[in-house]
Amino acid sequence: MKFLKKLNKLNFLLIRRVEGQSMLPSLSTGQLILAVKYKPVNLTGRVVICRYNQLEIIKRVKWANQNELYVLGDNPEYSRDSRFFGPISRNQLIGLVIWPKI
What is the dihedral of CA 21, 26, 28, 31, to 10 degrees? Predict the structure, then answer.
């Protein structure tokens, strides 16, 4: 765990703990994820961390264009996502989840 905390301080890696059931079965409550502060052009199908209403949310990108992302949880019954708040700006993208590989 100390190693992960040191990585987090490098400021290009993000370590987060999943909260809630919106990404089941891919990600479980309490599970740690690792993300990079990287904003690739092609995000469709990838899991990302975004900022929405001053909260960080973990969602999968359904579609993306130059300015917007449409993000969905893998568990629609428990997910508050773009179906409710619409597409989000690419500026709200924080990072790309790289581990676990999902």
Answer: -140
Q: Supply the range of the domain harboring residue 87.
A: 2-99
For the stretch 52-67, pLDDT in tens is 999 999 999 999 998 9
CATH of the domain at 93: 2.10.109.10
Confidence of residue 38 (pLDDT cuts 50, 70, 90): confident
Is this model's pTM higher than 0.90 or not? Answer: no
